# Entry
Amino acid sequence: MSASSLIRLIALAALWGGSFLFMRVAVPSLEAVPTAVMRGLFSALGLGMALWAMGYRPRLGRYLWPLLLLGVINSGIPFLMYALAAQVLPSGYSAIFNATTPLMAVVVGALFFAEGITAARVLGVVLGIGGVAVLAQAGPLELTPAALGGIAACFAATVCYAFSSFLTLKLAGTHAAVDMRAAVFISQLGALVVLLPAFCVAWWLEPGMLSQLVQAPLLAWGNVLLLGLLSTALAYVIYFRLIADEGPNKALTVTFIVPVFAVLWGWLLLDEPLSAAHAAGGGLIALSLWVVLRSKTQ
# Structure
């Protein structure tokens, strides 16, 4: 992996690690579905205004529908799943379970995209999962039915991310016909294809939801705005570029570093404690990244 890609990898991990912090602050006041919807909406608006200001006008033709579908898989469903998980899982756990995405990508790549499984990939994934398991011991989770539902939502999101990473490479990779700026923007519009109907259903089930949103504190709205603009719009620009340059398997190793940043932001901003388990887990995660990234194969 090149130095520029490594910098992008770390920046992306910092942004996605922050997303779990933003959700933990926003969801209690805005609830899960509105948080996910506003995340997608602010992301699409931010990207759209930036592209318009740059004078960019995408011409997609036959790629419009594939990119919208990519947005459903890559953003819409995961946004909703992680917002639902944020209602029931303790601090940082969604980030920890998100780190199983490379394992899902290895399985999905082998089953559906003719990707080879190398010893380095397997060893790197095992070490990364081991690091995540050690991190999880820093704050044991009581496996209530609600917590199990949150865990299931996280794993559903990781499966979506695994599939979408390969689809992104085909639609917006280095040799693809679609400009990456268009791919990122249209994929965020695709997310709204899932999120807006979910919002309508939530509103129908809870008519007082709009009043609750209006009365929500500015802190919650500020966090969901940062979630949409920084941890989604900017993050996906970096992520798509990383996939184009390094391939999906190496790009998805970012999920190993995300829990480290989620714990770090929680310590810095929410006064959450650090322990030896965090140091040991972070060390295993760093070793797993070294094993995966030193491999010349994607």
Remarks:
- The first helix runs from residue 3 to 30.
